[in-house]
Amino acid sequence: MRVNGIDIRPQIEAVWRIESAKLIASLARVVRDVGLAEELAQDALVAALEKWPETGLPDKPGAWLMATAKNRAIDLFRRNERLADKTAEIGRAQARLPTDTDFDSVTDDIGDDMLSLIFTACHPVLSTPAKVALTLRVVGGLSTPEIARAFVIPEATLAQRIVRAKKTLAKAQVPFEVPGAEEIPARLASVLEVVYLIFNEGYSATAGENLIRPRLCGDALRLGRILAGLAPQHSEVHGLVALLEIQASRMAARVDASGEPVLLADQDRTRWNRLLIRRGLESLSRARGLTDDPGPYTLQAAIAACHARAVTAEDTDWRQIAELYDRLVTAVPSPVVELNRAVAVGMAHGPEAGLAIADALAATGLMNTYHLLPAVRGDLLERLGRSAEAYDAFRAAATLTENMRERRLMLDRAGRLTDRTAPTRS
């Protein structure tokens, strides 16, 4: 796939990554079906893969893709048994579709269409895994194999998930539109959750050989920034972007040269990305400026900011972090938040105080399969000098995680305690 001896596939892939969401959003506004809109967009991509190696990239590749997809839509409806009705509908709709000449002048419509596409892909009628997969596909522009590799699941499983999601939206006749003002807060929470989950899977992979998947983090950041531009008046959008920017700033320091995880206290902070930190702090400031009652993402961003501002691990204001976690666990009560609070309390007020919280969580049985609970307990027990119990906790954490890097980290921490454990272990 070469033009004048130059492989243009990377250029086509870059165009698709940039233009696909806008293309699908504009098409979905007309055909009122996200699945059909994506099929039309894919047809346009196939046409580009066939044509552009011969002609080179057009001056306005986005406009070319839009015109091609629009023509495919017209052809499709002409073949439809409801020929008259659909042809009239597409004829009336053509005026709303960007053309070769006015593609660059419809940014307001594109913004509305993009927001509608994001809300549709994250509609409550879909399961959370379906929302994540569909969002990465139609908004993020990732291919099915790319998404499957990112989440370490079979490609066939991921493909079925996306197909079911599209059918579910069509069967439920989900309208392609921005929700009404009264619906936006609840619907926006679902959208933010999807972006947050995508980032977290990239930041700390639940399975596989690698601890981090920077591509997923980058896709989540891009989605968050798009959302902040489309819904600038909502504080939690900026709070989420702030959180992701600051967390992403630590990516280079989270693993060593061989890919093994590096604990926060041991990270080389000179490797933290100061530009991302600055952007994150600016987003946090915007979020705080929009409300006197910060939501969970803004509170988490404030916690991340405490770490970002600390020049060394010893400079970390753990008391402020513990106070922020007190507020967070009130805002969104959950075992995971409570476990994070145990870590903060253990650093601010001593390991015994943190262990009391962690042990109370363990007693509920709600986190029996969550590897970070024994990992946190192991750390607190080690700091208390209870090496045998810490050894058992780290070993338990190793058996619960499906990520190979984390498993090795837990086993290494247990191994370093072997000489301090009293019982002889087989």
TrEMBL record:
GO molecular function, one term: DNA binding
Signal sequence coordinates: none
RNA polymerase sigma factor 70 region 4 type domain location: 119-169
Gene3D superfamilies registered for this protein in UniProt: 1.10.1740.10, Winged helix-like DNA-binding domain superfamily/Winged helix DNA-binding domain
Keyword Transcription regulation part of the UniProt annotation: yes
Keyword Transcription: yes
InterPro entries: DUF6596, RNA_pol_sigma-70_dom, RNA_pol_sigma70_r2, RNA_pol_sigma70_r4_t2, RNA_pol_sigma_r2, RNA_pol_sigma_r3/r4-like, WH-like_DNA-bd_sf
UniProt keyword terms in alphabetical order: Sigma factor, Transcription, Transcription regulation
Family, per entry: Belongs to the sigma-70 factor family. ECF subfamily.
Name this polypeptide is given: RNA polymerase, sigma subunit, ECF family
Source organism: Stackebrandtia albiflava
